[in-house]
UniProtKB/TrEMBL annotation, chains A, B:
Its cofactor is Mg(2+). Pfam families: PEP-utilizers, PEP-utilizers_C, PPDK_N. It comes from Pelagicoccus mobilis. Keywords: ATP-binding, Kinase, Magnesium, Metal-binding, Nucleotide-binding, Pyruvate, Transferase. This is Pyruvate, phosphate dikinase. It catalyses: pyruvate + phosphate + ATP = phosphoenolpyruvate + AMP + diphosphate + H(+). GO terms for molecular function: ATP binding; kinase activity; metal ion binding; pyruvate, phosphate dikinase activity.
Amino acid sequence: MASKKTAKRATAAKKAVRKPAKKAAKKAPRKAAAKKNVKYVYSFGQKTDGDATMRNLLGGKGANLAEMANIGLPVPPGFTVTTEVCTYFYDNGRTYPESLQSQMETAIAKMEKEMGTKFGATDGMPLLVAVRSGARDSMPGMMDTILNLGLNDDSVEALTKATDNPRFAWDCYRRFIQMYGDVVLGVQAGPDEDIEPFEGVIEGFKHEKYGKDVIDSSLTAEDQQELVKRFKELVKVRTGKGFPTDPWEQLRGAAGAVFGSWMNDRAMVYRQKYGIPAEWGTAVNVQAMVFGNTGETSGSGVAFTRNPANGENEFYGEFLVNAQGEDVVAGVRTPNPVAELQEVMPKSYKELLQVRKKLEKHFKDVQDVEFTIQEGKLYMLQTRNGKRTAAAALKFSIDMVKERLINWETAVLRNPADQLDQLLAPIFDLADVKKAKQIATGLPAGPGAASGKIYFNAERAVDAEARGEKVLLTRVETSPEDLRGMIAAEGILTARGGVSSHAALVARQMGKVCVCGAAELQIDYDKKILTVGKQKFKEGDYLSIDGTSGAVYAGEIKAAPSEIIDGLLNNKKAAQKTEKYQNYVKLMGWCEKATRLQVRTNADTPAQTKNAIAFGAVGIGLTRTEHMFFEGDRIDAMRQMILADSLEGRQKALKKLLPYQRKDFAGIFRSLKGLPATIRLLDPPLHEFLPHTKEQQMDLARTLGIKVETIMQRVADLHEFNPMLGFRGCRLAISYPEIAEMQARAIFEAAAQVEKKGIKARPEVMIPLVGFKKELDIQTAIVHRVAKEVEEKKGVKLTYSVGTMIEVPRGALTADEIAETAQFFSFGTNDLTQTCLGMSRDDTGSFLGKYQEEEILSANPFASIDQTGVGQLVETAIEKGRKTRPDIKLGICGEHGGDPASVKFCHNVGLAYVSCSPFRVPVARLAAAQAAIEEKRAK
Amino acid sequence: MASKKTAKRATAAKKAVRKPAKKAAKKAPRKAAAKKNVKYVYSFGQKTDGDATMRNLLGGKGANLAEMANIGLPVPPGFTVTTEVCTYFYDNGRTYPESLQSQMETAIAKMEKEMGTKFGATDGMPLLVAVRSGARDSMPGMMDTILNLGLNDDSVEALTKATDNPRFAWDCYRRFIQMYGDVVLGVQAGPDEDIEPFEGVIEGFKHEKYGKDVIDSSLTAEDQQELVKRFKELVKVRTGKGFPTDPWEQLRGAAGAVFGSWMNDRAMVYRQKYGIPAEWGTAVNVQAMVFGNTGETSGSGVAFTRNPANGENEFYGEFLVNAQGEDVVAGVRTPNPVAELQEVMPKSYKELLQVRKKLEKHFKDVQDVEFTIQEGKLYMLQTRNGKRTAAAALKFSIDMVKERLINWETAVLRNPADQLDQLLAPIFDLADVKKAKQIATGLPAGPGAASGKIYFNAERAVDAEARGEKVLLTRVETSPEDLRGMIAAEGILTARGGVSSHAALVARQMGKVCVCGAAELQIDYDKKILTVGKQKFKEGDYLSIDGTSGAVYAGEIKAAPSEIIDGLLNNKKAAQKTEKYQNYVKLMGWCEKATRLQVRTNADTPAQTKNAIAFGAVGIGLTRTEHMFFEGDRIDAMRQMILADSLEGRQKALKKLLPYQRKDFAGIFRSLKGLPATIRLLDPPLHEFLPHTKEQQMDLARTLGIKVETIMQRVADLHEFNPMLGFRGCRLAISYPEIAEMQARAIFEAAAQVEKKGIKARPEVMIPLVGFKKELDIQTAIVHRVAKEVEEKKGVKLTYSVGTMIEVPRGALTADEIAETAQFFSFGTNDLTQTCLGMSRDDTGSFLGKYQEEEILSANPFASIDQTGVGQLVETAIEKGRKTRPDIKLGICGEHGGDPASVKFCHNVGLAYVSCSPFRVPVARLAAAQAAIEEKRAK
């Protein structure tokens, strides 16, 4: 999940980059910013200069503070130093524009006036300020916050006097020196220190005075005063200079620290990762301090305007009486639910509810706010769009349309496509998970939660399932031979392979929960034991896996199905009564209204097809015929075909397979009820169908009545160094045309059969792995010949087309030639990624992590399409294909079809459809609708 | 060899296609050809209408007959029906233009006049004609020849009378019916017949009359007459019609058969293969018969104007007295050397010598002629450019420049580049080969001849060589572990793998003789036995291999080195006295004068480098550093590095490798004497360096003092499904930057070392398998840092550059980005072919044959670059790379650099150099020069 989010943000960031960059180019050169009349400081408070649209200049935090002030919310006054100053700072040897100081002085004067305090006052209440950084987007790695700036030995006395609270005053001063000393003056732990220096002083003092570690709140005013003294000494020793006493020097120092942090390592790494240009710069926010810790009529809290977990329209958050904001999140005291504020401070609570309403009405989205109540007066310190779960996002969006806050298109955009499968997956109860022991982490390959007894081979898994057990098929990696075991299992767990490995691919297609590539697992097939570190689990022990997070837990955890899935697939009537289902159906209705790109499914069975149609698929984009060969006894006929040493032998075996395939296809056509089905002819290397252990080979020899040596020899002959680049795809049926012939016959006879029953069949026969037009010519000729034969024999007129999968670069590069024969292209972006990048999806485990860490890849290219490289081939093929055949049908099959970023790419390059596993269909539909809406809005 | 020739012809054919096609488009529409005034018939003889330039209209044979007539050579008169008639024939429902008959009548009349005979004469000597097809290029599959046309029951009597030779006359008639019946009337063996029908009649007659099979020449006139009778009956039975008696009907029938054969299956397949358009059509040549079989003053012969085997300027051929042309080549009687004609028919011989001189002077090339002497009078029946060996081509070309027949540029073009290695390879004596028993055929992978005792593993091969034995390393396939064995061997023989397999690649680089992929070989490593069919060869038995043809022979055959190789590498003084060496040097001098594309070499050792420079390489295009790790004890340090589980462990092992690498590089720089060397950092998957048998793993465990389980685990961890697409190339040093660091240090320290000795070092550091700019950035930063460190430490200024190999499609597609960092691109077209086509070079064996048979591939794409697909990526990368960095250095490394067609492609797309194995350097230089000359001439 992380990588997808990352990719999405990166894309968003990139988009954001381009536009401002263009605007900047049109502007006057940057040096102009040094002129005296440039406004560097934007005040907010009773009089506010900025607004929410000025994010680029004021940063996200500054712009929202200004906006809150504009709409009359109680924001402590302050000002924002613009991002242009940051740029100036770096363009001019870390100096400031001349007029900055005077502009800040004016702004501080406004604050003093509004608050009735004075910056650095030695008499009366001093103005203390908080200094915070604030870039266009919130950015980890940058300087956070300095509170209570403006205090020194004199003003602390004034504060004591004004508040009549010496403990409070000295605590503020002590905290300020600690923060400033750390962040601005760099008094930090050296490589040999195991404790922060200021914390070390506190700890020493506590032991010295109390003989033990006491809690901070038990320290007296005198204790705080002593700590201030010791802190100042520490600063002097470490920096060679005294702690700055001039509030203006403190303020300039803090601003400098904010700007300086823009170029620290962590911030640069982050910018590089998300493609944020250094020219953006950060703003500095200076805001009057308000105090939630001045007594029982004060407090601080954080809240969401609605419940971000389940989406309920209820004020949701927590607060602490007599505390500052950081105390609420620090977890030292347990905060109270925000609703309880009604009893403690009914006036402030009422005010807060008004703020909540105003914020939502104004920002038209759920807000995440921070507030402080100082002696009964409410102050809003921050607002931003609230993060939310998929369930909450769905309810928010639907509710807000009802409330006429947003329109339906915005509602569609408000649901993150890559989180939609959270709504569809069975889930563990959070409480149970907390109690469970996590033993490993793999890749989240098939969303949902599953619990079951582990079995290490397919056969035993099938038996266990027959006995009524819940099974987790647990293997080093899976192969087509494991198919029956996968069907029998609740979930699939593998130690090797990425998110596009066989296990992941098949699991998603079946809608099975799957965690793959959990490298900590050591599996001993012989002893039937799974080892993780020192723990051992034997066959039949319970494990639980979370295919949404990749977590693997010891023991059993209960899982429940999603109402939506239940409604779509089983129990519509009951589900229709639930709001979640209703909302989902509404959302998908809007998607249908918005979308241009169609969504098909990858399905090999009538059951999968039915599911996919229930999810909204409008046809099959990929039927992998080879999966059908693994069911029941068919595999024996398939093996007989492979082991035959003559055309006659192969034909005899194929004849046995024909009725099976025909039946399968007929079932699929019936499920489709007239929707099209792209059927791919045999694709995988033949060795995948043969048994590889001596035992199995002996069995097969007995079954087929041939020598085991013959089987061993054939397995050896079929061995390849790089099977991915070997004897597979159409190469098989170029060598053995009788295979293509049998498959075409099965398809067309099945079509004829269902058509006679009045159901339209629309097969699209797809030739795999075509790199040369001639390959397609040869195969297409067979298909057409067989179609004609079936038409004549059965007396029907078939509706079908023949096309190819574009999955090797040469296919894309010669698409103009290939389109002379191909009636459609389906992009096999899995294999196209493997060949374009020269990376086998099964072998990237050893370096993909490092590649993402080093930012070479922003996302797993097998999860989200590499738009720069692979995308170029897709675009080339589209252009060339259309040049030859303007109405060529274009789609994508393979796992990228279920990835939102890839779906948007497919929309943008103008494909007609994407195809993905049934359980990803809703995700793809949502992403496709979003792409269409975004495109419309960009116009 | 075949495939290369094929590719070359295909290219030539394609070129030939384009131009006429354009011309045709400018011409008036084809229907114009139907007009009455169009000339369809071109006579030759005393008065000749055509000439040699009219190939397109008259076909090759017709044009050359006209040309010979034009220059006064004694050509039997005749005429050519133009290719336009063929086109008309197919455009108009197999009918002829109206005026054709009258034009033919006129032409026949001319022939009658010149010969003093009459077509279909019943009195006096009848005019008999030969009818032959003749397309622009000679084309197999088309109708060949019908002789003696014009005979019927009446004219045979006239012929008997005129020649006073009934046996001759009836023999002519009998042969005519047989040929005409077969070719024109289609009286051929049915599917159940095992003998041609006419031959069956002859055999039956012989047994009937003589009770046994007697030779044809013992048949009497009466016998022939009887056969004529039976033949005519046969025709009647088979076709339902009598044999045509009207000479004009016979003539029209024969012409129709020629035109008909233009569209037969074989001809169509051939045209498709070589891209010859159907519109070309064929001409029909009708020529007066002359007879070499009329007695002792008659005869027939075939001859070359110079010796096509060794190039000597001597008349070379054979003749038979009292025989027709077909008898000379049929092999029933043994012909005499043409020189003996001087004694038998001195006048004709003298005349023939004059013809020889005239032909060469006129055609400016060695001619292959057919002649007939009829009663002392010489007739020339055909001339065409003679086929020749590489040795002959060299001598012809040099001699003809001396004789001022051609200029030096033409001389360069006259040497087929793909045959040049014949001149450099050691060769078996032809007589010995004839006596030897061929047991298998593989792919010709390293030219030359080698004989030795077979050994099945590297270690035993090395031991045997140390004992002074000549060794043939014989393996199923080779891997880098076999390197020492390959060095020790005279030649390498493998049962699996293509012309770009490891064995082939390394063999060519070393200049070793190699036959690979000889699939008939069954090797049992355990029993140390090689089985071919029923024959068994044990370790130490002699085999001989011809790496130029791919043949494998039982037993020992002596081989001798080429004088040229000997002169270039060893014994220049002696070689300089030989004409072959002188000629070679002269040719290469011309090549140097003509060429634009430079030729570098792939070399890993000083010895290889020296060889390559002797062959004319101007630098190294590819040093594969990993090969260096297999020598001596280095492999242990390498293995230690791979097995280390920490950075420190790896660094420790790398420290051991550093001095070895530095020494290697210093040696290479010294050999290069200032020429540049592109050095590729570590590329292959690490598992290639680890031992794979339990025994070897135990050994290694002992050597390194670690547990064997650790080694087994690491081997298992490094196992990959598709190693070609796995953890290799720069992916290794992205994960373990210390490897790149060590290699860079070794390179630069070596450079500093030799520079201090006054020798310039010009390393070009190449980062392999780059698909993302960032990969290159990371690696380049390491290289620059190390360079700077070495410069400072050693006090030298280094001259070097850093670039990358473009070998995955993504690298080519994002070449604009990559060129921001890369100072040069070297196209790794081996891997680029594998990824672009999705075909592993090691795994194409199972379908490549079928693909060539089906014409999907015209050549092995690993031998000759796929210009349409891979070529497109190369062109894209060049264009994009130059856009970013106009002076980017562009080259190609990998085996395509030694393939003439690929070299020409590289010239045409504007690369700066190709790089190939040392022994291919001359081939590449010749091809590069030819490309430059062809380009100049095309302007």
